Amino acid sequence: MLRLWKLAFGLLAVLFLLVPMFAILPLAFNDSSILTYPMTGVSMRWFSELVEENIWRRAILNSLIIGLSTAVFASVLGTLAALGLRGSTGRLARFGNLIFLMPMVAPIVVLGVGMQLMFTRLGLNNTYLGVIIAHTVISVPFVVISVSAALAGIDPALERASANLGASPRATFVHVTLPLARPGILAGAIFALATSLDEVVLTLFLGGAGQRTLAREMFAQLRENLTPVIAAVSFVFIVGTVCLGAVNVFLRNSRRFRAEGPAE
Amino acid sequence: MSATTSPAGTAPAHPTRPHPIIRCDRLSKSYGTVRVMENLSLDIAPGEFISLLGPSGSGKTTLLMMIAGFEEPTEGAIWLDGRRIDAVAPFRRNMGMVFQNYALFPHMTVAQNIGFPLKMRGTPRREIAGRVARALEMIELGALADRYPPQLSGGQQQRVALARALVFEPRVVLMDEPLGALDKRLREQMQLDIRDLHRRLGLTVIFVTHDQSEALTMSDRIAVFNKGRIEQIGTPDDIYDRPRTRFVAEFIGETNLLTGRISGGQLRLPDETRLALADGNGAGEGDEVVVSVRPERMRVIAPGTMPEPGANRLEGALRDVVYLGDHLRLQIDAAGQALVVKQPRAGLAPQPGARVALTFDAADTRVITS
Question: Which of A155, A171, A259 shows the shortest C-beta gap to B108?
Answer without folding.
Answer: A259
